Amino acid sequence: MEFRRKRRTRSATAAWALTACTALACGPGPAAPAPLAGAKPVAFAVLQDYDKGTPLDSIARDFALIRRLGADTWRGSFGWDDYEPERGVYDFAWLHRFVETAARHGVRLRPYIGYTPAWAANGGSGDGQDWNDPPRSLADWARFVQRLAGELRRHGNVLSYEIYNEENVPMWWDGTAEAYAEVLARAGDALRAAGSPAALVLGGLVWPDPEWIATACGSGDTGSRIAAVPVHAYAETWTPDSVTVERWLEGGYRERFLPAVRDRCGAKPVWINEAGFATANGRSERDQASWWVRAIATFLADSAVQAIGIYQLHDQQPTAEVIGEAENRHLGLVRLDGTPKLAFRTVQLMLRLLNTGRLAVRDEAIAASVVAGRAGRLHHHLFERPDGRRVLVVWDESGHPTVALRIAPAAGVTEFGLDGRAARRPPIALQAIELSPRLPRIFLLEPGG
Asked: H/E element holding 425?
């Protein structure tokens, strides 16, 4: 195994991608019930980290961008080191204003709590830094979580608290899964003691780790109390060429990870709560835009996945303190000059088509045949929305085939480009779809026909 360190502006959150693991967003957004057979909740969040004291006018502009993108949920850190810089000294004034700013823009919050302050760190990581250490004292940790949750209880837009982040990597969290299970359980107790209505969420895993899940959810009633199991996905940015986004949910994910979730956590939904693709090292904005279509379609087609977290809104400034390679600075949907990349419009399109609260996956309703050329590895996914419209995404990983799709008739067909531009197509167009490698084609099918 080889690990790649990921990001944080300031004291750097470490994210890691495995070269060999085929692993795996954020919490569910508005999910108005609809009479759609076989439907599951679906939601999206957008990630952008802010340190305490970041100007709120710039954050307000970001919240407006998140809404323009088509999401209403933010994910990022509430750093323990920010809000209890000294033992027993709390500073939540800016945080209240941050939460209120989000509420004014109709943005809901799913923070993760992490970044251990120096005074509370156990020194276990051995790298000379404190933020990535487990807490020395569970009592200090629980007191902080209870105080934080109590302070924010009056804000109705704080939906959940994720406990730490990427803790299943030894170089990040030099503690055992048993130690993390205690940290998770004590956080759950603290939320309950604070009278917080926010949900308890397991920390996002760097890959679908069945052993870690079995231990973290196997401690007391913790498994029954968590709301979701989040996993991160940075395939094709920090993985070898053989690990594509289409393969990220293969292998051990279905054979070992999902059974462990079911057995120990109670069949909780999976959130792909961090996913992204960097426009660095020769990867173009077109590559990024195509990746996002492939990723969203691949992840949502899995029956357990209910949420996707988009990492991240902005590219990072060259002067920002970020751990890792150049990729860390180029994962955004918006360039340094504030202009949107192509992927901004692509993700905006996908959310407009699929962020409908509930979706039913209808892949079994498609039959595909290659009528010209040669397929490499063909993919096609069909999603039915509560309004009866269906969204079809089709692509080939490596070939240039022309494919015919047998599918229930549609009254009308609209095709969308990566830039969101729409063009009407005759239904017969689905009988001759020309494909290029890793370039998805996106269709909206009107009901009837």
From this structure: strand 422-425
